[in-house]
Amino acid sequence: MASKILISEKKLEIILNRLCHQLKEKHGDFSRTILVGLQPRGTLLLDRLSEILNRQGFKNLKLGKLDTTFFRDDYRRSETPLSANKTEMNETVEGMNIVFIDDVLFTGRSIRSALTAIDTYGRPNSIELLVLIDRRFSRHLPIQPDYLGVQIDALQGDRVRVVWSNKSDQNIVYLEKSNE
Amino acid sequence: MKKLSVSHLLGIKYLNTEDFNLIFETASQFKEVINRPIKKVPSLRDITIANLFFENSTRTKLSFELAEKRLSADIINFSASQSSVSKGETLSDTVKNILAMKVDMIILRHPNPGAAHFLSKNLNSCIINAGDGTHEHPTQALLDVYSLIEKFGDLKGKRIAIVGDIKHSRVALSNIYALKMMGAEVKLCGPKSLIPKHIECLGVTSSSDLNQVLNWCDAANILRIQNERMGTVYFPSNREYSQNFGLNLDRLKQLKKKIIILHPGPINRGVEISSDVADSNQSIILDQVQNGVAIRMAIIYLLGSKLNIKNNV
After folding, report:
1. CA separation (Å) from B40 to A77, B6, B54, B68, B75?
2. B50: which strand partners?
3. Taking CA atoms, what residue in A is nearest to B300?
4. C-beta separation of B27 from B20 below 8 A
5. Which residue in B21, B22, B305, B308 has the most chain A C-beta atoms within 10 A of its own C-beta, making it the best mutation to test that interface?
6. In CATH, which of 3.40.50.150, 3.40.50.300, 2.30.29.220, 3.40.50.1370 is domain B138-289?
7. ω into residue B266 within 30 of 0, thus cis?
8. Which of B15, B140, B230, B264 is exposed most, by the fewest CB atoms within 10 A?
9. What percentage of chain B has pLDDT greater than the value 90?
């Protein structure tokens, strides 16, 4: 599988900072907001965004990690069971503004399951979606992001791989082309 | 991605350590789910489960039923006393008729050892053994081990005592298999008449000295006397049994360390365990009950995922 760099380290750093500014514009001091990373990969993006916001003085962010495995619509449709990851939702969801955070938006089915999963914690005031990569023209459901890193065109078999490093300036996004 | 090595849960004997780990990992996620304000997931919304209880049950039946409802499965309940079994229908015919109504999974409790095994060989359905006579009670053993792991972290080298009516207890046999698989040392304790001959070949030891066993162990699983399975007299009286094998606070106070107390229920207070021990902070009986729902959700979820929908459409 041939791969090419989709977003370089420098460009990714700029995108992450821009996304943080957009969040600040909409959510102010974040007192009524919970940033929720979707397991497994969205939580890594959440870590990066919360690091940047922390550096900018937002020290008491309300964060959560949500696993949607038991709410997915493809149970009994694969040879192996869907394995769940850990959920950490320690904040009260009732009446709060939720921002779902995920790295790649593809078919939209994970986000649909997240919309059902978050309801088990209460009734939020609003739910928004932040994604780093939007693979357009691949949606199975009418779901669109509110905050977007970049929009890309990729073929069905292609894979977008986001590599997070311990050093914030070494994060990178690859597009792996299918051999077909 | 991991999956269970079996298509039915007939007994602990048929599972391996990877199965245990997968069940426990999944149960931990379900334990988080059942502590949410809304305790339900939609995974099994297109699956129908029949709870076939040919023997009385309170805890296990309620626990299975709750687990199924938390997973959004459709359920039908059956109890032998109100059925055509009393008119002479065979087990196989009863279950075939139920399966003809498009039921996907069977939870079976039966007084005869091997009943679940028999059905799994003769019918095309997923069978979960909820206790078959004096043979096995796999979900109870899984929740007991899970509850112990929550307390100890790891069971390797831990000393676990099983006290009471070992001879007639399906919980005892399943616990022996499960605890040995997780690396624990197991010692059985009870009247000699209630400890099966040759039980040592399962890799356990036995004793009839309760005080010595309690001093040896890190945790004790106390079992009730199964009067309903006894065709003859195995000990002189409940009073004498209680004096020799009943766990009370005086016995616990004499120990050098605090041990964990388990009981699968139902409890006969004052016989195998006194009220003050059952309600003490060393007892994890209610943790076992809560973990039972999570464990059963995990088993139904993992076995249900093997009922691939592509085979049915």
Report:
1. 21, 26, 28, 10, 15
2. B76, B106
3. A81
4. no
5. B305
6. 3.40.50.1370
7. yes
8. B230
9. 76
One-letter identity of residue A18 = R
8 Å CB contact between B13 and B177:
yes
pLDDT value, residue B313: 47
| Crossing angle (nearest 10°) for helices B285-304 and B138-152 | 120
**Mean model confidence pLDDT for chain A:** 91
Tens of pLDDT, residues A131-144: 999 999 899 999 99
pLDDT digits (tens, 9 = 90+) for A22-40: 999 999 999 999 999 999 9
pLDDT top residue among B119 and B82: B119
Residue B133: enclosing H or E segment and its boundaries? none
Structure tokens at A14: 């700029």
- In chain A, how many domains are there? 1
Interface pTM (ipTM) of the complex? 0.82
CB contact under 8 A, A70 and B301: yes
Q: In what order do the strands lie in the sheet with B74-79?
A: B74-79, B48-53, B105-110, B126-132
Specify the DSSP class assigned to residue A99: E
DSSP conformation class of B285: H
The whole domain housing A163 covers 3-72+84-176
3-state helix, strand, coil split of chain A in percent (to 5) is 30, 30, 45
B173-190 pLDDT, tens digit per residue, is 999 999 999 999 999 999
Residues with Cβ within 8 Å of B145's Cβ and at least 6 positions away in sequence, in order, are B20, B155, B175, B178, B179, B182
Determine whether the interchain pair A70/B33 forms a contact, defined as Cβ–Cβ distance below 8 Å: yes
**CB-CB contact of A151 with A136 (8 Å):** yes
Task: Determine, yes or no, domain membership for A122.
Answer: yes
Predicted pLDDT of residue A159 = 84
- The set of residues, in sequence order, having a beta carbon less than 8 Å from that of B102 and lying 6+ positions away, is B48
Residue located via tokens 């040759």 = B198
Confidence of residue A79 (pLDDT cuts 50, 70, 90): confident
CB of B7 within 8 Å of a chain A CB? The answer is no
Whether A79 is in a domain gets the answer no
Flag whether A153 is in a domain.
yes
Q: In the CATH scheme, what is the code of domain B12-136+290-311?
A: 3.40.50.1370
Domain residue extents for chain B:
12-136+290-311, 138-289
Summarize the confidence of residues B109-133 as an average pLDDT: 93
Burial class (CB in 10 A: 0-12, 13-18, 19+), B196: middle
* Amino acid letter, residue B142: L
Q: Among residues 119-178 of chain A, which lie with CB inside 8 Å of chain B?
A: 119-122
